[in-house]
């Protein structure tokens, strides 16, 4: 599961018993050597799909981590690209990898931007927000985008009930719920709290026009359904 350069079991245990912020501060030096980093296949599929909708000027990666999403923004944006995250450790590694980008430390539930970006993306971060927190996240991204701006992110489709993935994610979420019930501070990371329909409803409530495009290049489940969708949430061009 992990490369030799990745974290040890002991390190993962310490991180898992920390807060989300502290856990990622500790994980940052080895994060790119774990399965938690967004795979190149997903980054590439997202960039390819968005290339037909650009070019864009300024770009924002929300919950940027060590900066994997910068590879997508750099290929699509003609202006400045910015990453925002609340982990100082993750931002430090991102800054070293992409010194030409702008880096901002902030809570994604209270983004400090107003109508500055043409494209916003996020990768693998929705599981860190409880359903009650998604509205604040989406409303912040909405404010950060210029009229007509686009918020895009890949989201995994539900795995079939008969698949190993279904039971693995169910087991992980149950384990995290038990951990958070008996240990403080909480570590919010769930795989099954953001179904496609609920995410689209929250985006619509924030003011976006939300659609979903199948990322079929990333494969299909046995029943023929796509494994991943690309959410495309557009801020209306006319705000009046």
Rg, rounded, reads: 17 Å
Strand arrangement, major sheet: 3-2-1-4-5-7-6
| Name of the CATH homologous superfamily of the largest domain | Vaccinia Virus protein VP39
Mind telling me which CATH architecture of the largest domain this is? 3-Layer(aba) Sandwich
CATH class of the largest domain: Alpha Beta
Task: Give the overall pLDDT as a whole number.
Answer: 88
CATH fold type of the largest domain: Rossmann fold
**What's the total helix number?**
8
* Largest sheet composition: 7 strands, mixed
> Oligomerization state of this entry?
single chain
Helix content: 25-40%
| Straight-line N-to-C gap | 51 Å
Q: How many β-strand stretches?
A: 7
Run of helices and strands: HHHEHEHEEHEHHEE
Beta content comes to 15-25%
Keywords: Methyltransferase, Transferase
Enzyme class: transferase
GO molecular function: methyltransferase activity
InterPro entries: Methyltransf_25, SAM-dependent_MTases_sf
């Amino acid at each position: 599961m992990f490369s030799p350069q990745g974290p040890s079991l002991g390190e993962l245990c310490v991180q898992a018993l920390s807060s989300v912020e502290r856990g990622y501060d500790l994980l940052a030096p080895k994060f790119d050597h774990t399965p938690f980093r967004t795979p190149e296949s997903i980054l590439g599929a997202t960039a390819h799909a968005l290339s037909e909708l650009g070019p864009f000027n300024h770009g924002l990666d929300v919950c940027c981590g060590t900066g994997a999403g910068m590879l997508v923004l750099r290929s699509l944006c003609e202006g400045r690209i910015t990453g925002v995250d609340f982990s100082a450790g993750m931002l430090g590694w991102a800054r070293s990898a992409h010194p030409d980008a702008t880096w901002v430390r902030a809570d994604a539930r209270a983004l400090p931007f107003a109508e500055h970006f043409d494209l916003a993306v996020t990768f693998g971060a929705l599981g860190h927000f409880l359903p009650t927190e998604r509205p604040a996240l989406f409303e912040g991204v909405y404010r950060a985008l210029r009229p007509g701006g686009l918020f895009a992110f890949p989201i995994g489709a539900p795995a079939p009930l008969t698949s190993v993935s279904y039971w693995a994610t169910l087991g992980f979420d149950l384990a995290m719920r038990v951990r958070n019930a008996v240990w403080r501070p909480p570590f919010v990371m769930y795989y099954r709290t953001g179904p496609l329909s609920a995410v689209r409803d929250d985006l619509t409530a924030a003011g976006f026009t939300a659609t979903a495009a199948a990322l079929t290049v990333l494969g299909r489940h046995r029943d023929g359904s796509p494994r991943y969708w690309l959410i495309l949430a557009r801020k209306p061009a006319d705000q009046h």
